[in-house]
Please model this.
Amino acid sequence: MTPNATASVDDSSAEVMSSVDRTQSGQRLIIADISRDDAWVAVDVADALALDDWQ
Model:
């Protein structure tokens, strides 16, 4: 993943999914727009915020 952020685009055809993957160092939360190349972020589950914390 590149560290550069790009401007958001209003694309009603976007398909966003998430998963929790196991790695050797723990678990990672991955959020990806599967309708675009290289449009994803990953974070350690321990560092991810609960949905209630986003409100």
About this structure: The chain has a mean pLDDT of 82. The longest strand covers residues 16-23. DSSP finds one helix and three strands in the chain.
